[in-house]
Input
Amino acid sequence: MSKQDYLRLNAKYLREAEELIEKKDYPQASEKIWGAFVEALKAIASERGISLGTHRSIAIFVTELDKEYPDLKLREVFRHAESLHVNFYEDHLPEDYVIESKQVILRAIEQLLAR
Output
């Protein structure tokens, strides 16, 4: 897929996450936020000729980006995203945690894509 394809999915997942949060469907919203973060990463990776297909490859790429852009604290952001991914399956996170993690992740996506 191209960078534009990944960015289209990123925007789609972000819109869907907002709709799901309005419905208070936090497990589904959590997964959409995770997906939006990963699609943003894949957009950047695609520009660099890198394919991200596993959680491990995503984690390794996040580590590389974190070294490149330490001010973004992407490893911390990734932990937020992973916790939301788990919340999809476990529905264990309270509303305020999902909202806080969403804000952290959205800020990181905006800053990352602006570089």
